[in-house]
Every structure is written in structure tokens, then in C-alpha cells.
Amino acid sequence: MAKAKDVRVKIIWNVIVVYITQKNRHNTPHRLEFRKFCPYCYKHTIHGEIKK
């Protein structure tokens, strides 16, 4: 019997620093983008979801 695809999936998003979190595929089918502080650039940059 085949496994059903999970609704919540782990995502990896980064620019330089790697973050791992989860998202609900049904509520947010598009790629996430966060505006976070980058400790290497010393400014706020856009951190987007990367392809697995």
C-alpha cells in the first residue's frame, strides 16, 4: 500500500545561514520568503525557501 503524502513538509530556507522549519502544503503552496537579519551582512535580507 502506498503512503499518502504528508500535509506538513520540512522546508529549508536560507541566504547564508540555513534555517529548517515546516509548512502546510495546503495552506501555502507557494515558496515562502522571510525578511530576516543576516549576521554576516549586518542588515535585513530576504531569505527564501530553497529547492530540495
What does this structure look like?
- The chain is mostly beta strands.
- It is elongated.
- Strands 2-1-4-3 form a four-stranded antiparallel sheet, with no helix packed on it.
- The chain has no helices and four strands.
Helix residue percentage? under 10%
**Number of helical regions:** 0
Number of strands: 4
Largest sheet: 4 strands, antiparallel
Q: What are the segments in which pLDDT stays under 50 over at least 5 consecutive residues?
A: none
Average pLDDT confidence is: 82
Q: How far is the first residue's CA from the last residue's CA?
A: 25 Å
The secondary-structure element order is: EEEE
Q: What is the CA-based Rg, rounded? A: 14 Å
- Globally, the shape reads elongated
Strand content bin: over 45%
The chain-level structural class is: mainly beta
Strand order of the largest sheet: 2-1-4-3
Explain the layout of strands and helices.
Layout: E1 8-14, E2 18-24, E3 33-38, E4 43-49
Antiparallel strand pairs: 1-2, 1-4, 3-4
Keywords:
Ribosomal_bL33_CS; single chain; 4-stranded antiparallel β-sheet; elongated; Large ribosomal subunit protein bL33c; 52 residues; Ribosomal_bL33; 4 strands; mainly beta
Quick summary:
It comes from Saponaria officinalis (Common soapwort). With 52 residues, this protein is mainly beta. It is built from no helices and four strands.
